[in-house]
Write a structure and sequence with these properties.
Layout (H helix, E strand, L loop, with lengths): L3 E5 L4 E4 L2 E4 L5 E5 L6 E3 L12 H14 L4 H18 L3 H15 L3 H9 L2 H12 L2
Antiparallel strand pairs: 1-4, 2-3, 2-5
Length: 135
């Protein structure tokens, strides 16, 4: 048996194929057996007002696919373009690896995996933007 295992905190919410599911009072493990299910932890969701930086904007597009608010075929092109643009600015080895993983996931239409890879870049982007503000 394989698939994605979600470990949910008490009262944590998750969006699975467009349905919001809330955990009960205790920690829970849920196995998602359906391949290519669209899953988004709502605690990780980026609010539209927060999608103001390059990495967050690309993450937001992936999130829209997972929530069912964007057509995967149309979003695929936007995601690949955004990843390409990010690769022009984020040149270190770890960022390149995350961007390559995200690109591969998008090409395979594994949008959850793409979002997961892209989210790794948010702390780095925050540091770079903070350093730029200090100049």
């Amino acid at each position: 048996m394989s698939g994605l295992v979600l470990k949910l905190a008490p009262k944590e919410r998750v969006l699975i194929n467009g349905a919001v599911i809330e955990n009960g009072e205790r920690r829970t493990r849920v196995s998602i057996l359906t391949p290519n299910a669209n899953i988004l932890r709502l605690r990780d969701a980026i609010h539209p007002d927060e999608a103001k930086t390059p990495v967050r904007r690309v993450c937001y597009v992936a999130q829209l696919v997972l929530s069912g608010d964007a057509n995967p075929n149309e979003a695929k092109s936007q995601l690949l373009t955004g990843i390409e643009q990010l690769s022009q600015a984020l040149c270190d080895h770890d960022s390149r690896r995350a961007l390559q993983d995200a690109s591969d996931a998008v090409l395979e239409e594994k949008f959850y995996q793409a979002l997961k890879s892209l989210r790794l870049l948010i702390p780095r982007e925050d540091r770079l933007l903070a350093a730029g503000a200090d100049l």
